[in-house]
Amino acid sequence: MKGIYKFNFDNVLKDKIGETGISVDEIDELRDFTNLAKANVTKKYEKGDLGFIEVLNEDLEIYEEVKELSKEFDYIIIIGIGGSILGSKAIHQGIYGSSNTYHPKVFYLDNSDPEKIYETLKAVKLEKTLIFVISKSGNTVETLANYFVIKKHMDKNNITPAKPNFVAITGGGLLQKIADKEGYMCYKVPENVGGRFSVLSAVGLAPLACLNVDIHNLVKGAKKMNDICQTDNIFRNPALLNSLIHYKMDNTGKKISLMMPYIGRLHQFGMWYRQLWAESLGKDGNGQTPVIALGATDQHSQLQLYMDGPEDKIMTFLKVNTFKQDYSIETDYDSDLKGHKLSELINSEQLGTEKSITEKGIPNVKITLSELNEYTLGMLTYAYELQTAYSGELFCINAFNQPAVEHAKKLSHAVLKGSIKEKSYNEIKIE
Amino acid sequence: MKGIYKFNFDNVLKDKIGETGISVDEIDELRDFTNLAKANVTKKYEKGDLGFIEVLNEDLEIYEEVKELSKEFDYIIIIGIGGSILGSKAIHQGIYGSSNTYHPKVFYLDNSDPEKIYETLKAVKLEKTLIFVISKSGNTVETLANYFVIKKHMDKNNITPAKPNFVAITGGGLLQKIADKEGYMCYKVPENVGGRFSVLSAVGLAPLACLNVDIHNLVKGAKKMNDICQTDNIFRNPALLNSLIHYKMDNTGKKISLMMPYIGRLHQFGMWYRQLWAESLGKDGNGQTPVIALGATDQHSQLQLYMDGPEDKIMTFLKVNTFKQDYSIETDYDSDLKGHKLSELINSEQLGTEKSITEKGIPNVKITLSELNEYTLGMLTYAYELQTAYSGELFCINAFNQPAVEHAKKLSHAVLKGSIKEKSYNEIKIE
């Protein structure tokens, strides 16, 4: 499997967007700063802190067992939330899209919304469903709740698949205890791999192997990107360069990082990036708010704001040269579209929008993939993981924790237990 | 059909969030300012400029014809983009969710991505598919391209449904010409109804009637909200009050309007709001960037940033008291979740998160619906349309145009025609 990855940064340069921009010389002069960031990441890796790099050397044969098991099933349910599920969802949809018309069909239980579990139970046959339960801590309440409901539903209705149909992916907690007691097939989440950096560990690879994603080429792409990013020449290191660009733009008030793929299959990749960027850097008043838009669709929803609203955005275009399918636009009516392909139309919209926002002085970068397959998706995914690690260094932020959410969890627990009640003082009520 | 709508603004008040907040007195003192905004909207309506209010008085019997026709079909395709499709999608998913397991199945062609049309053609039987083609101008390129491809596909493959299967909804342009020539059933988009305000016109109601949405109760809810909002007492007018709150928060640097429903069925409503808010107010450097998150899912992705990142957000929680289905969490394992319902869990997460971000001083409002049905969704939808109209007045922005996107369209057209080519100067290429 092959593919070409291009990172273009023309449109963050001063000669393109004016004073907001940066110059090649400026980037070059920051060499000590960026090399230190890179060296610090290497140091953390050598200390054993960065599991997301270590997993590149994992033996992928360990996923043959679950892949073999999955052949007994027609449906897959993945129970998880946040980093436990966003990675596999992004990669699966990156390859197969969101139509869910391929075998096996996949369903994501990533919320504690009861209607979601109802719709899922309606859509699958549980005796033909392989169910992944994924939580690094093993104690994630939404994940456990979904598991308990499905397990009880099976027990009550005497649903007994031909082969055991639960697979746990965890690093401990109650889920580990359950897996041990029930004898579930189990994969380990390494201690040094954080949820949002876990897509190339068992968290992502075990379900993806069962969903007919070529995980060997996925990891091969990631390794290729890792090799490329060993260089100290920032103009040859797309992760480091994009990290610096976002750092500089953040410094000039671009507090929103807008990612806009021009292919539906990459929309979910945007949602994965959204967690990675937000949770890693959103600390101590710092961080950029990630916003995901889909081209060309959102030109008809968000472009007015991007063009003419507050100047608080740096954009990333994601573009694919060759689509899996294509159509010629043919008609007997008088239309300029005649004779063009749909792929030409969407890619001309990308370039037109890029030109237009560049003229407006809005900084933007572009990643172009020759085609969207496991290899190029592996490159893309890993580039963003590494970029995020570099950015932690540039912003002097620990990119690998998420301290602020613990308090909300405690309050939610207190509400559930009844020790905090809802009170309304200022309210308009309409019946 | 009934339902209760509550708008709570406790958590924007100074006594809850400190200096960032506003006070009830302050709101009261701005009476002249808000009443002028309201009066200006009324004036525009009386001048005949605000079709989104006029359509409340439309005779809904006109949709019986297309509803009757739709009974011949098992699938519905809606071809449209932006305001032509976001409204019907939001309402349909608000009632039926996104599982697409109800009859008739619905597919949205809202992009020029060739893979999307391929997946859609794979999933439907065209001879059993009613196809809406929606474009107010009648010249939207993505919409015409999708129509041309499907039409040619049917002609080439001699697919002839028992009844004519195209319905045009337009205000003119090439689509009107095509509809006339081909003899399609046709609904008019009134001149004074803009795309993003069109959900309660034919643009939304014609397809929704065919999708078994109770459009009578939808409009009834909207009318109820319209009646409520006739009052000059801002503390009884949720649209005007929320408009003022967002205006005040924008003035203190809250440049991101974050909407977070705690029920999957309202996620697409968020995407509708996203266009409404962005395109109406994102002008001349003004406007808030709308961000849509889903509770509880995004607590595990975005909450760290919301809690501890830049203080640039005002949040809106959307909450539903009663879900269509519910489950008790039962297990033999030792867990605090035992005995609770899933709906209790998700709503305790909402309240815990609300308490937590309020303690952090982040302004937030909450809309609670007793249940999510056509009536309450009608109230909700219309409240936001009216709020957006009021906001145009408060911000002194024309909320009903979108001038900035025209140039991007021209450039895209030039790219398609070959007069602008892609050139790369500063690029990292990886093979």
Q: What characteristics describe this protein?
A:
homodimer; 431 residues; alpha/beta; Rossmann fold; 2 domains; 5-stranded mixed sheet; 11 strands; globular; gluconeogenesis (chains A, B); isomerase (chains A, B)
Give a written overview of the molecule:
Two copies of one chain form a homodimer. The first copy, chain A, has helices at residues 14-17, 24-29, 31-46, 51-54, 64-70, 86-96, 114-123, 141-156, 173-182, 202-210, 215-228, 238-251, 267-281, 303-308, 342-359, 374-394, 405-416; strands at 5-8, 75-79, 105-109, 129-135, 166-170, 185-188, 256-261, 289-292, 313-322, 364-371, 427-430. The first copy, chain A, folds into two domains: 5-42 and 218-394, Rossmann fold (3-Layer(aba) Sandwich), CATH 3.40.50.10490; 53-215, 3-Layer(aba) Sandwich (Rossmann fold), CATH 3.40.50.10490. Chain A contains 17 helices and eleven strands. The model of chain A has no long low-confidence stretch (mean pLDDT 97). Chain A has 431 residues and is of the alpha/beta class. Chain A is globular, with a radius of gyration of 23 Å. In chain A, the strands form two sheets. A five-stranded mixed β-sheet of chain A has the order 1-10-9-7-8, with helices on both faces. A five-stranded parallel β-sheet of chain A has the order 3-2-4-5-6, with helices on both faces. Chains A and B meet through β1, α7, α8, α9 and α11 of A and β1, α7, α8, α9 and α11 of B. β11 (427-430) of chain A pairs antiparallel with β1 (5-8) of chain B. Chains A, B: It catalyses: alpha-D-glucose 6-phosphate = beta-D-fructose 6-phosphate.
